[in-house]
Predict the structure.
Amino acid sequence: MLGTFLEDPVDVPWAVVNYVADQLGIDDPSCMKEYAERAQTRWDHAGEIRELLGFREFTDAEDEIVAFVASRVAKTRDSRRELFDRAVLQLIEKRVLLPGITTLARLVRDVQRDGLEAINVAVVAPTPLHTRRELIGTLEVPDGRRVSTLEWMRTPVVKLTGKGMVDALDRTSHVLGLGTGAVDLSAVAPVKLAELASYGLHAKAPKIKNLKGERRVATLVATVRQLERTSVDDALLLFDLLMSTKLLSGATRASNKEKLKTFPKLKTAAVKMAAAWAIVLAERPEGQAPASVAEMMAAVETVVSRQELAAAVESVRALLPPPGDDDDGDTEWRASLVDRYATVRPFVEALTSVIPWGATEAGTEVLAALRGLPKVIAARKAGVEHIQGFEGTGDGVVAAAGVRQPEAGGPGDRPARVPLLRPGVAA
């Protein structure tokens, strides 16, 4: 190993001995065997070499290497082997004579053990006692369940239904309710919390339960803190998929299906009206006076009867009502959403209260409207008075509240809406 003296100074490869002897002009390299006849010679030479090259004894630099390894333990995820290798490189860089492998390995082991114990204490110390008890309780299997509470919290909900969304929010609520996010862990490097959490997210509950000392609670604290973020992300992802696949796209398909049903009747009516209008637009011979209304109607009745034309006009009016002030072209789409309200009704209140919503300054009104959803839904008959103060927010927010926004600025982006329409409210 580089950076140290050999235990037996004569234990040098003979190829090296011959090479050096040739450089020094020594005719008989075998004289190397006589080097060990005087025991003190090796120590004298070692001292001279150490002084010449500026090397220090390991005992003089031991505190420095302990501090170096301790720093790596506190701030990195280095394994014991990696810590050992880095310690060797550090000793060589600082021109310190390397100790025996066993000595250095023992030092690295002890420093790593003490450092990890100190990290566990730093995680557990600021954690309230009641939180510690609750976290340890998550390792047990509650009555009526087949897995521990920890395993339930670690498992994301994948059922793409309203019931699945309720379960996802229930999971998020339970994780956030443990309160680990409020524990001040600023004294612990994030990478060490991630290391503890990685173990807690994958190890079986019985194995975590058997951890000794502060390691068990420290692992649970870091794990649940990580679950606070992932459970919220999982719930929002499920919500996004539920909205896009079960509600928005479903309503769009239903709306398009209804439109297709009316197409044959609309086509028939349009053909008759087009034939009548072609007669009206037909050019008259030059010099002939304009036709009277009676003459024009007589000409129209040659291609379509008066009764058929009236029926065609009524059909078009019924199938394509003229646009009004409150028509944004999505009437059928919103009407289809009303039929799907039962899917979202069970989790609307939990969605607004469980998820820790936040917003920029520009989105504060949207956030306030979102938090006001339970109040609107609780009203027996929601009306404009329930959205007073939110008139300037986007069309999607009011759609979420289940009340039409007066004088909306435009139809908005349909996929961006939160269609929690309430049955019986004008849409």
